[in-house]
Amino acid sequence: MSYQIRDGESKTFELSGKTFQKIKMSHYAVATAVDTPLSGYIDVLKWNIRITLHRGNAQIVLCDGKLGVIGILGAFYNSNYENLRNQNYTIIQEGANGNKEIAWGLFEIDLGSVVNLMGGDRAVVEVQSVSGSFGSGVDTATSYMYVDAPDAVGREYVTPVIKTKSLSPNVDNDNVDLGENVTTVIFNNLDKTSVLLSDNVIQSMSLSSDKKSTNDVYGELLNQRSLQFESQDDAAKRNQSFCLYDGTELKNAQLNLILDSQNVNSSQNYVVWRYF
Asked: If one looks up domain 163-275 in CATH, what number appears?
């Protein structure tokens, strides 16, 4: 079952008797006027999603955050990144010849592994749209976000959880206790638009754990990221965002970031990680 959510609305729905891994969110944006290009599209920081797994007497929050922040886990390595960050959406009707322009774009929240909802298990999905979630050039009466939880295939060996931490503005370092069974760590920057040193946020980072310890400066992060993509151009489109780790689970994982404080702006830098 899928749901339509409009600007300023909140909806809650339950999943049961199925296996899922992703929540897919696709937006349908209609221009306010004919013969006029869309502007603003959607503000991915004004869409919030929370997924709570109810299993027996336990309630486990699988994720809770802004689409523009936690959505990075399902977008970093593919074209959805362009939708999430640069509003590079697909025009399905041009704003010409008396028509309103209409755009469509896909986002997804990827938990990283499947969740089997068996017996009395259920997942409660809450999606909230803050007023102003669409741009000023979008007709909010006819535009909406389409939310769905497609079926997945597989056996649940672990229960995946997504966590985030927002960096305080103007700090020159931060320590993040990532905890146990960490499988993915991404630094998600939202406001920088280049790889230039003038935009540099992370000057260096160190990650320590039971299995892996790394110490990388900015140039090494750029080099490692370029190896994760088919071209340097694709890697550079991630600007100041980096996948700091993606692999087998780490225990007692600790992240230390040394930052250029003048580039650390309020609510623009997040550490996002998965664990189980």
From this structure: 2.60.120.20
